[in-house]
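Side project, low priority. Logging it here so it doesn't get lost.
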Amino acid sequence: EGVALHESVGSVLHIGRMQLLITRETDPCERMREVHDNLFEAMAKDWRGGVCCRVIKDGAICVGDEVEIVDVQ
């Protein structure tokens, strides 16, 4: 929540010590229709399927880690 994924391609997502380069949008899964008839269509708006990333720096993700998106463009 509070992250504008549609504006984040090329940015770096920091989760704790991990760093991920946001490379592109990914579509919502068709299986969402199994949960609710209109869920897929609702999620398809505003990049709600999520994003694909390339790992820049690996690491464990822990509860309570800070999350930050850094615009590197």
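Brief comment: The helical segments are 32-35, 39-44.
Revisit when time allows.
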